[in-house]
Every structure is written in structure tokens, then in C-alpha cells.
Amino acid sequence: MADSISYDNLFEIIKHTRSIRRFKSDTVPMELIDKIIDAARYAPSGYNQQPWDFIVVTETELRDKIADYTRSYRDQLRDMETTRESWQGAYTPRPVGTELDYSSAPAYIVLIGDTRTNQGLPMGVRYDEHRLNHIFISSLANAFLYMHMAASCLGLASQWLSSVTTPYAQCMIKNLLGVSEYFEVYDVLVLGYPAAEASPKLLKPKDKMIHFNYCGPEAFRTEEEVNDFIRKARLWTMASHARKPDKKI
């Protein structure tokens, strides 16, 4: 019974851990931020090297600058989206103001990775660039996911801000926050209280993703099925990005 209850609780956490992109401006107590980071410290990492450090950014001026560094990429992204394959459907650019992005959130947690920890990996990994990068990134991803789930448990909204890894944003953020050359910015967890509820998640059919033992071509989705899901997933995602805050929350 104890195992069943534990799984049920975990599954509820998993289902409710979502990127919520609309935030209230209310301050997040530092003790909650500390709990989120404390959870991330227990994440698995390659050879337990724990390559992570965390920068908590609550000063408005710094947060505004980080948001500015990612806006140029967002503008480029909108232009690039117009070149998508026609079968995916037309892309309609929408103006994005502070009401429709993360800039109203009161706190950011910048997750950075210390590349010096790679020296603790086996020599066979250190001399294999692909495996070294894979282990380093996977370790940081584990810590980030733990933060994301911890925020959900604490009733907070969070969003993965991955555009901080573009060359321009990474360079400018490291300079802004005084980050050493040994570190790489992995991602930023945007954190605050939700100003909207997450819509029901679109999921691939379970029977289309589980395979036992041998998996021949017939076991996987057809190209038509994949394309159909791509269209639905893009519509679902774009609707989520364009959603306005709920004034009733």
C-alpha cells in the first residue's frame, strides 16, 4: 500500500508539472526558492560530479536585461517560422508584450554548469566529446527538472527559458551576472505565482509509444500519423504561448 500511495503522489506531481507562461508580479518568498534549489541538489549526475550552480535573480533591472537579451532571438524565431513546410499550416505572428511573456515573473533561477567537473569523469568519457557533452547536459537537465517539479509542488508557476543558450544571450548573461568562463548557462527557470491555469496536455497515444522486445518498422507510427500529431501539437503549443493571463486568478 505504501508503494502504491508513493507512486500515486509522484504521478500527480508529474501530471501537474507544466510550463505556465503567465505570472503574477507577487514576490516569491526566499524560503520557497531555497526549497526548489535544495531539491535540485539531489538530482542524479554523471559520476556524481554535480556540475551545477544556481544564480537567483530577483532584481528587476537584471531580470529586464535578461529578458531583453532573449527578445532578439524571439524576433528571429518568428521570421524563421514563416519558412516552415506548408503542410504544417500557416504561421501567424502575434505581437508579444510583457503581458504575454515571462518578464512579469518576480524571480529567475539561472542554472549554470561548471565544465571543470568534467575532469572527474572516466578518461574514456573525457576523450569522447559526444559522451562527455551528453553526460554534462543530462546531469544539468536532471537538476532543472527537479526544480521544475519542486516549484509545482509548492504551488508556483515555472517556465523553461531555453533561449538563454543562444550565443548572444549566453555571452551577455554571463557578463551581466559575472559568471566565470568555466561555466555554461544551461537554462533559466522563470518562477512566480500563476496568472493562468495550464490547459489539458496533449499526449501521444500510449499504445503508439510502447514496444516490447523486437520493434520492426510496423511497430512505429506511419509518416501520416507523425505529421498529424505534429500539426496538433503545434496548434496546442501556439495556443498556449498566445494565451492571456486570467484576471480571475
Describe the protein in words.
- Helix content is about 45%, strand content about 10%.
- It has one domain (about 15-240): NADH Oxidase.
- The longest helix is centred in the middle third of the chain and has 25 residues, at about 130-155.
- The protein has a four-stranded antiparallel sheet with strand order 1-2-4-3, sandwiched between helices.
- It has seven helices and four strands; from the N terminus they run H-H-E-H-E-H-H-E-H-E-H.
- Helix 2 runs antiparallel to helix 5 and helix 3 (about 60-80) packs antiparallel against helix 6 (about 165-175).
- It is of the alpha+beta class.
- The protein has helices spanning about 1-15, 30-40, 60-80, 125, 130-155, 165-175, 225-240; strands spanning about 50-55, 105-115, 155-160, 185-190.
Keyword list:
249 residues; alpha+beta; NADH Oxidase; four-stranded antiparallel sheet; globular
Q: Topology, please?
A:
Elements: H1 2-16, H2 30-40, E1 52-57, H3 60-81, E2 107-114, H4 123-126, H5 129-153, E3 157-161, H6 167-177, E4 183-192, H7 223-242
Antiparallel strand pairs: 1-2, 2-4, 3-4
Helix pairs in contact: 2-5, 3-6
